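Incident log, support desk, overnight shift.

02:14 A customer reports that sequence design results differ from what the structure should imply. Their input is reproduced verbatim below. On-call engineer (initials T.W.) acknowledged and began investigating.
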């Protein structure tokens, strides 16, 4: 009997050691792949910023349109004073980033700082490339401003989606919205909507032309629709249900890398009659790409479902409104 117990104990120790080795190997793989994922994110953030600046320089500035966000503020300053938009964009974002870093922490802004530098660079670069000898910017679609507005809005919406999908942010009004959301019971989406409305409306004080203001609203609407369509809403919440042979490793990775809580339910496979652990994770839609990456790198045979969730309240999500 004692020999059998020793064998069982030995088997348990071997199993424990094997799990530890697998966990260590998984951790090394995650760190290695994480580097490449970060490189991929930064590459596509750069691409998104470049495309955004192409749309802004070709279709917004030449026709004196005002989009939302800090590029809209920099455009208004350019129209009113002639001060280069890339410099005003950088100065305003630098002030907001300094305030945001103190309140929200550095981790929140790592890729925002990178995107801000990229947009500043590309704004200056593309304006210098397309600028005519007389110093003006060409109107590439001629005397058809509404077509320019639609094309510019589509390009900007698609470019912003590329940035957001790859865990990036263009800063500006996003920083203000995040700060307001931290201290007040207002969703970031609502704050961003009001800020963009104020920015576009402000162009009236420069041009005294309601046609340009209304066109700015159209640009804002088209870019938001395209962004939401591409992103399936950047602020939407999703629920993951994960069944894997490595539940502890996946749960730990999601907790460490995404800072999301994981609930473990104890179940049983009907066919195998074997006990299984089921992971339940609530996350933002924009975090889903990172969660899928972690699951794939740990267990590419895992069974995963992701469903849209309407109304998620509690820590890390919205506040319950009464």
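02:41 Re-run completed on a clean worker. Output:
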């Amino acid at each position: 009997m004692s020999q059998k117990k020793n064998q069982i104990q030995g088997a348990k120790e071997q199993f424990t050691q094997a799990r530890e080795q697998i966990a260590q190997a998984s951790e090394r793989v995650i760190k290695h792949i994480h580097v490449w994922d970060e490189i991929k994110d930064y590459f596509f953030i750069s691409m998104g910023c470049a495309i955004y600046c192409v749309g802004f320089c070709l279709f917004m500035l030449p026709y004196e349109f005002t989009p939302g966000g800090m590029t809209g503020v920099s455009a208004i300053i350019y129209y009113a004073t002639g001060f280069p938009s890339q410099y005003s964009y950088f100065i305003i974002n630098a002030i907001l980033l300094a305030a945001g870093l103190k309140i929200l922490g550095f981790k929140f802004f790592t890729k925002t700082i990178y995107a801000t530098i990229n947009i500043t660079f590309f704004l200056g670069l593309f304006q210098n490339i397309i600028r005519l000898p007389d110093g003006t910017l060409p109107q590439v679609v001629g005397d058809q401003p509404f077509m320019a507005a639609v094309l510019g809005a589509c390009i900007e919406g698609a470019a912003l989606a590329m940035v957001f999908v790859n865990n990036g942010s263009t800063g500006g009004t996003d920083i203000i919205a995040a700060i307001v959301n931290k201290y007040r019971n207002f969703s970031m989406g609502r704050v961003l909507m009001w800020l963009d409305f104020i920015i576009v409306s402000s162009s009236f004080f420069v041009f005294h032309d309601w046609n340009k203001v209304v066109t700015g609203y159209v640009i804002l609407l088209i870019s938001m629709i395209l962004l939401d369509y591409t992103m399936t809403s950047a602020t939407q919440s999703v629920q993951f249900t994960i069944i894997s042979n490595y539940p502890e490793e996946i749960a730990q990775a999601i907790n460490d890398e995404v800072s999301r809580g994981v609930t473990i339910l104890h179940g049983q496979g009907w066919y195998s009659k074997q006990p299984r652990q089921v992971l339940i994770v609530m996350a933002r839609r924009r975090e889903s790409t990172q969660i899928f990456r972690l699951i794939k790198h740990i267990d590419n045979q895992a069974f995963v479902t992701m469903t849209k969730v309407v109304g998620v309240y509690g820590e890390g999500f919205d506040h319950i409104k009464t």
